[in-house]
Write a structure and sequence with these properties.
- This protein has about 400 residues and is mainly alpha-helical.
- It has one domain.
- About 65% of the residues lie in helices and about 0% in strands.
- The chain has 16 helices and two strands.
- A two-stranded antiparallel ribbon has the order 1-2.
- A hairpin with an 8-residue loop joins β1 and β2.
- α1 runs parallel beside α2, α2 packs across α15 and α14 packs across α16.
- The C terminus is likely disordered.
């Protein structure tokens, strides 16, 4: 079986790291929930936002990394590598979950700010602590802004059989993903949430972005490359992005709303994020096509120093994302307790991004040191060429020659 990946094994697409880092930064700014910082996020200028981009890139990179693992070591080996990553994401979410709940409760009581309890959906913990924690472990109870990682856990957890099938019949799997998306929207399929309602990010709908990313990584990009080369698509795409920006801004600025017929305005407002509205999916698809057209994989500008912090945050996305969610709450609390002026908001936003970037550089350095130490460990040193590793206290033996035609 031969699977043609979109990238050579030795090449790292810095565009993925760049835009995933950007998505992390903009999600942090959007989660602070202030009037000024929100204008620096995607959500005020179009139908899709940083969450859509994050899920799409996660599917793309997961297919590249674990697709190779599955090809090299088989289904079982690839699945174990995938499930190890799922456990890392789940652990990160649970640590964030505990620190988040404890911080909201502590600060609400210490500073007499009971409104934080309701705003950040911590009331279930106070009403039924054991049940709330149990439901949190089951990913059903999610405080405010803690919705993305549970979605990531579910998508990655279900990915092993999907990836195995995509390595053989990627187009059929992509078609199945599209059908599941429309069925979920038509029949209202979603997972239950606690204490009531459903998941904010419907995994039956959002899987479409994840699978699309995987499909493109595993060769689907060649199928749709004509869209990148087309002269008409950029014109239509830019027109749609302008329409999306104006329509989104109309939901925030009443005077703009008057320019559109009520039926047209209500089609796009409020934006259906939970079930990933088709116009939202189309918006991100156009952003991807235009971004691919404008920024080549070998663009020299990607190596510029100005982009390195953002790229580093994309390379350490799990840690940066978790820290960003926590900092968004701390930033909101700080502004609430002090001042929510423009200068204070800009300082909070800058400080948060600086801390996230510092975490990314630290984790990159830490992993590099651990890898170097692991490589230098006597237990992992490779024997000289032509010799096999011998038990301690015995001389190394020459390597046995392979027998041609041996079973």
């Amino acid at each position: 079986m031969r699977v043609e990946l979109a990238l050579p094994p030795s090449t790292r697409d810095l565009r993925l790291d760049l835009f995933r880092g950007l998505a992390n930064w903009l999600m942090f700014l959007g989660h602070v929930s202030t009037s000024v910082l929100a204008w620096f996020s995607f959500r005020n200028y179009g139908f899709s936002d940083g969450a859509d981009l994050f899920v799409f890139i996660s599917g793309y990179t997961s297919a590249l990394v674990f697709g190779r693992r599955m090809l090299e070591g088989g289904f079982v080996f690839g699945t174990t590598r995938l499930l190890r990553r799922v456990w890392q994401i789940y652990t990160a979410h649970m640590l964030l979950f505990v620190f988040y709940l404890a911080s909201v409760h502590l600060l609400a009581n210490s500073f007499n700010a009971p409104d934080l309890i309701d705003r950040f959906n911590v009331a279930p913990l106070l009403n039924a602590p054991v049940e709330a924690i149990t439901q949190g472990l089951l990913l059903r109870y999610k405080p405010l802004n803690l919705d993305v990682l549970p979605l990531y856990v579910v998508l990655m957890g279900a990915f092993p059989p999907v990836l195995w099938l995509m390595l053989r019949h990627r187009d059929w799997v992509m078609l199945g993903s599209v059908l599941l998306y429309f069925a979920a929207r038509q029949f209202g399929w979603n997972l239950p949430s606690y204490p009531a309602g459903v998941w904010y990010f419907n995994p039956f709908a959002w899987q479409l972005l994840f699978v699309l990313g995987a499909w493109l990584a595993l060769g689907g990009a060649k199928t749709v490359h004509f869209l990148v080369r087309s002269r008409l698509v950029p014109v239509i795409g830019v027109a749609y992005l302008v329409f999306a920006a104006v329509m989104t801004l109309a939901g925030l600025i009443p005077d703009l709303q008057k320019l559109f017929p009520p039926a047209l305005f209500e089609t796009f407002n409020p934006n259906d994020k939970t079930n990933l509205a088709p116009y939202r999916f189309l918006h991100l698809a156009i952003v991807i096509v235009l971004g691919t057209r404008l920024i080549a994989i070998d663009a020299k500008g990607l190596q510029a120093a100005i982009w390195k912090p953002m790229i580093k945050c994309g390379q350490q996305s799990l840690e940066v994302f978790a820290v960003g969610i926590y900092l968004a709450f701390i930033g909101y609390f700080f502004l609430k307790m002090t001042s929510d002026g423009i200068v204070a908001q800009l300082l909070v936003g800058t400080a948060g991004i600086a801390i996230m970037t510092g975490v990314a550089y630290y984790r990159s350095w830490s992993k590099r040191v651990e890898k170097a130490h692991h490589a230098q460990s006597p237990a992992h040193r490779q024997p000289p060429l032509g010799e096999s590793r011998a038990p301690a206290g015995e001389p190394a033996r020459p390597a046995e020659k392979a027998v041609v035609g041996a079973r």
